[in-house]
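Pipeline run #58 for the internal structure catalog. This entry was flagged by the ingest filter as a single-chain record with no existing model, so it goes straight to prediction. Upstream metadata was stripped on purpose; only the residue string is passed forward. Reviewer on rotation: M.T. Logging verbosity set to normal.
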Amino acid sequence: MTTEITVRGSFSAFQPPERATVRASLAFEGPQMQPVYDRVVRDLEAVKASVSELHDPERGPVTWWATKHVATWSNRPWNQDGKQLPLVHHASVGIEVKFRDFSALTRWVGGHVEQTPGFTLDGVEWALTEVRRRELARDARTRAVRDAAARAQEYADALDLGPVRPVALADAGMLSEGLHPQAHAEMAFSRGMAKDSAGGELALSPDDIEVAAVVDGRFVAG
């Protein structure tokens, strides 16, 4: 007589980020649309020029960048007394810049925060290179399978069933009929915001990136 053992194996590794994508925006508002629009376009050209100086797809410090179209809209705000105020016009544009040199990232962001009035840092997304991510994901899957096998053997040993033998292996959630893979990402991006450190200098503190894998295994023993 054989005994069936179903287990879940997992493994996580943590790696310092290798790339960082800055998401920033330029935005202005005023009583007339054309001056507001012109200000955003003028400052956008200055930001793009500063990125172009750093751009080198192979060596960096900027490996990629992109901008969005300038968006414009208008609204009539209300004051605290419930009175509608004159029309206010808005213009904004977003920009994304990917860095491989985090010191250059800090200098670039800090320079525009100080020198470009409408510049806002919306966030930083930290990541690994695609090659490194695949290497770590492959290793995580292998170790998750080994973890599942070790768990199954521990259960079998507790019952004196002898060595276990695998009969099924799947991504987490797929061994039961009608179920679907569960969302166990192989990599989770780490998002961080810039902040002022002592002395007013810009500081960036990225977390390590988790690369994880989870598998379900079915074993028999006895």
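catalog note: The chain has a mean pLDDT of 89.
catalog note: The domain at 19-127 is CATH 3.30.70.360 (Alpha-Beta Plaits).
status: ready for reviewer M.T.
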